[in-house]
Design goal:
single chain, 159 residues, alpha+beta, Alpha-Beta Plaits, two-stranded antiparallel ribbon, 4 helices, 28% strand
Length: 159
């Protein structure tokens, strides 16, 4: 089973004046820490709300220092359970983001590709069988001239 895991990180940023500046610096800092080892982790701004439901910017600034909420999203392959996927994501991301608190927000199971591949392969084989049956029932209109046209094009491709 494959899972998509979203982890929230509280990234500290120093010497900033605006929330936008803090967010840009936090995303850049996190990207530098994760790359090149974890370049498949998607970084986005986190969402913060008050207890009453009012939205807040993802950065909290006090005394020219900020704490920025970022969401780090990655796919974990071949896991047994959701908890297993969450542990792997926290470990992989946490090893590179030392001293940055992490919390798993969402673990979503991805649809199994082997099942969808089998169903699409069955549909394709059914379509090809129908096409074959239709071509067998119609009289053949191709001539030797059509076959000659195909061979020179193939030879041109080889050159």
């Amino acid at each position: 089973m494959d899972c998509r895991v979203v982890v929230e990180a509280a990234v500290p940023v120093f010497d900033v004046e605006t929330p936008d500046e803090a967010i840009r610096i936090a995303i850049s800092k996190t990207g530098e820490l994760l790359n090149p080892d974890l370049n498949y982790v998607e970084i986005s701004m986190g969402e913060r709300t008050t207890p009453s439901g009012e939205e807040l910017p993802p950065a909290f600034i006090a005394a020219d220092e900020a704490l920025v909420a970022l969401e780090l999203e990655m796919t974990v392959f071949n896991v047994e359970r959701d908890e297993h996927a969450a542990r792997i994501a926290r470990k992989e991301i946490g090893q590179r983001l030392e001293n940055i608190p992490l919390e798993v927000l969402v673990v979503k199971e991805l649809p199994d590709e082997s099942e969808s591949d089998e169903s699409s392969a069955d549909a394709e084989s059914t379509e090809s069988d129908q096409t074959t049956n239709a071509s067998e029932s119609e009289p053949s209109t191709s001539s030797d001239e059509d076959d000659d046209d195909v061979l020179p094009e193939f030879d041109e491709l080889l050159d």
